[in-house]
Amino acid sequence: AKEAAEQRRLAEEAAEKERAAKEAAEQERLKREAEEKERLAKEAAEQERLAKEAAERERLAKEAAEREQAAQEEAEKERLHREAAEQERLAKEAAEQARLAKEAAEKERLKREAEEKERLAREAAEQERLAKEAAERERLAKEAAEKERLAKEEAEKERLKREAEEKERAAKEAAEQERLAKEAAEREKAAKEAAEKERAAKEAAEKERLKREAEEKERAAKEAAEQERLAKEAAERERLAKEAA
Question: In whole angstroms, how far apart are CA 64 and each of 58, 93, 138, 164, 237?
Fold first, then answer.
């Protein structure tokens, strides 16, 4: 009976030590799970921060492109306004020159009428020469105006080309920003899938551990019942021996 009691005591002590070890292991497992959850939360927060930064960069790039386009449009309006004002001024000056020329011609005509025919003939020849020179000056002025018009058209073409190149560059930058945002979202999705798989694996491992613990408890209970039965049989034999004695 004493041996059986000692065996029970030792069995209880072993069971107690095993329970304490299991509790310590369970505490360690829960600690690791908490640390893993915290790490995953930090990684998810970092991914979200990076996505927000990418969206902010894309927004700032679009705003800069819009401001630059508005500035270019305003500059073009100002240039056209200055050109129109300059053309109006030139037209007024030309009209003033024509008026002055007419007044001078009228004075000259009155003067020529008072002079003799020979002077009138010389003056007529002189007027013809002046007319030719004026026609030459007008022709040269037209040529200069034509050259200036062609130069302006060439400058306008160059400006439109630069605007097209700038729009293309802005479109490429926007596409690059969108690609980076998609890659960030894809990485976040992959991280979530990996975390889900790891969680499922941990749950399966936990179920397996609980199953082993239940089987171990059942085995220990059976051993304890067997020990108790043996102790009862020993006590019964001891009692019968005493009765026989």
Answer: 10, 43, 48, 16, 100
